[in-house]
Structures are given as structure tokens and as C-alpha cells.
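Many introductory courses stop at the sequence. We go one step further.
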Amino acid sequence: MGRDWFMLFLILAVSFSTPGCFDEKEEFYYSVDDSEDGTNSDSTSDVLFSITLDDQGGMDMDFSDLVVIIERDSGSHNCATTGTTGNCSVVQPLDSDDSIWEIGETLNITENGVDICSQHCILAFIVSGPEDAKIVGPTILNTT
């Protein structure tokens, strides 16, 4: 009987000493909306598209973990989530918690001093989140 208790103690000790090892992987779901017709111009501050964190059993994401990259024939653009660096920016609504991308919250991906899309263009993008989980988004067609 002593050996059975020892094995039970050993199993419990191992399971308590490895917290988080058996947690489920975080999942994030989002939807994308093209900017409204007629919003793309020769300007360098157009809204390219909007992205919403959807509730499909997912969770809020730390804003610092979010990486958005726009790819186009002319090259790729890393969108800044803080500050004014980068050719594009990820813009949160004014009344939101700026440290979290919350379920149901819509972010605007905007040009930041560079004309990424004028009139009619096709954009592809990559969204990365925690633990380098990459999500390749659909190609966006922007039209006038």
C-alpha cells in the first residue's frame, strides 16, 4: 500500500509542478471589411481596411502581441500599433482600452504618410498574434 501512495504523490507533484503545460492554445478569430467605396485616393492617410476581433469561443488579445503586415507588389509594410513609425498604422477606437484588442472591437488599418493604395488595388495581409501564431488574411480588393 505504501508504494501506491508514493506513486499517487509523485503523479500529483508532477502535475502541480507543470502549470500551464497542458493549457489549450489561445485562439483568435477575426473578420475583415474593405474600406468604403471611394475612400482610396492619392492621399497618404486613407483607411485601407477594418479588422474586427470576433467572438467564436476566442478571447481578447494583448495589443502589444498584434502584428499586421500588408503585402503588395510594391513591397511589404509593417503597420505600427504604437507611435508613428511604419508606413501604416493600426488605429483603435478612442473609447477603447489601448492595451487590449477586445472581442467585438474594430481596428482601422490606415496609411501613415505613404500612399499604399490609390484608387484600385489588391492588398494581401498577415496578422500575427501571441506565440507567433500567423493568420494569413484574405486578399482585399479596394475599389473606387
